[in-house]
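Recap for those who missed Tuesday's class. We walked through two folding examples back to back. For each one, the amino acid string is listed first and its predicted structure tokens come directly after. Nothing is annotated here on purpose, so try labeling regions yourself before you check the end of the notes.
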Amino acid sequence: MSTVKHALRQTQAATEADTAFTTACNGFKQPCSSVLAAIDAMPQGGTLTLRTHDAGERARLEISDTGTGLTPEERDRIFTPYYTTKQHGTGLGLAVVQSVVSDHRGTITVNSETGRGTTFIIDLPKRTEEGSAQSGASA
């Protein structure tokens, strides 16, 4: 695939994914934007899949790519501040994502296998109409 076509595919995928992801996150933009870095893990192109699930009192968002996957060391350190595998990365993106998800009483986990892709799973408490979490805490 030519570099131009590859860049266009990535741009189109990023735009479509950003729109769907931002809508699914409903104002949860920092984690949504940061996890979209999954596109970088697919230098030859690939598939970025966003799924939402009703998980009882929690809502689940899964972001999967068909990229290069993570080594066990990368997977263990992926949320560590300043840890990066990118030449020009700061290593703060996923650390911030984890912090924001935690601030919203949620969890983020990663499943990955080298050469087979990566899946991030964000679980968040559902909100009631009043805006408080169903667990009974007030907003």
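Example two. Treat it independently of the first, because the proteins are unrelated.
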Amino acid sequence: MPVAAQPGLGPEVTGCEFRTGAPPSLAVMHLDWGNRARQSRYWHLPNGVVLSSRPPQVFGIDILREDADRYRVWVVWDDSVFGWQSLSRQQISETDLGDLLFELGTDLELLLSQPIARCVKAS
């Protein structure tokens, strides 16, 4: 049964799946934006990437904090996959990802405040 991420505000989530083929394997949502799906706009992503499109019908994001102010970010946007290996909090915050995540009921600042990922070597 489809659910709205934020009743009356966000898109309707009509399905979820794992997208493989590009590292890492990402969980993505299938989204129905209703009338807003027809409205094309410019979406600013990290490192100067700008998409001219409607809101994504398929979207997934993975943010891995690797250091105090260094993040690895992967985004699935419809049929495209974007990856950035070393972004600062400011570089991520200056994009439209925060607004998009808000529409989906997620706070970008909480994702950026996650603990630093630690690799554990097998002994």
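Answers for example two:
The longest strand covers residues 58-67.
Helices lie at 89-93, 97-103, 108-112.
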